[in-house]
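Work Package 4 report. The design task specified in the project plan requires that, given a folded chain encoded as structure tokens, an amino acid be chosen for each position. We show below one input record used in the internal validation round.
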């Protein structure tokens, strides 16, 4: 069965869904699940919503890019966000760039439209992702 989801199986044979395969970021040969990075970022009390996507990187092929919506009246620097992530996940999974926005595009069903966040970064590139 093909669902488009990526997962892991533990020693007892239980399968855990980790992320959508189309949202996986490949950077320097490492697979990075966007959901893992998003979970780290949304632990910050200043963050209302975030989306993590892969954007082109000439050295690594792709890099982690976070798009973040802050709660009303809150402030957060990109540096503080990345420092927080480094306490929770491996350094290579942490965002290399952070973009703060007022909103993230959503479908009528309320799902994040990550392709709209990726597209501008991949314009004019031979390799496209998602």
């Amino acid at each position: 069965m093909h669902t488009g989801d990526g997962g892991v199986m533990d020693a007892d044979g239980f399968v855990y869904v980790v992320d959508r395969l189309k949202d996986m970021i490949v950077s320097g040969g490492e697979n990075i699940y966007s959901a893992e990075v998003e979970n780290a970022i949304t632990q910050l009390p200043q963050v209302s919503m975030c989306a993590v996507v892969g954007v082109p990187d000439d050295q690594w092929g792709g890099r982690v890019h976070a798009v973040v919506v802050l709660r009303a009246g809150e402030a957060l620097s990109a540096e503080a966000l990345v420092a927080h992530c480094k306490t929770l996940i491996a350094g290579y999974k942490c965002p290399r760039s952070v973009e703060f926005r007022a909103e993230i595009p959503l479908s009528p069903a309320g799902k994040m439209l990550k392709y709209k966040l990726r597209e501008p970064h991949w314009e004019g590139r031979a390799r496209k992702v998602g």
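The chain is about 20% helix and 35% strand. Validation will be extended to a larger panel in the next phase.
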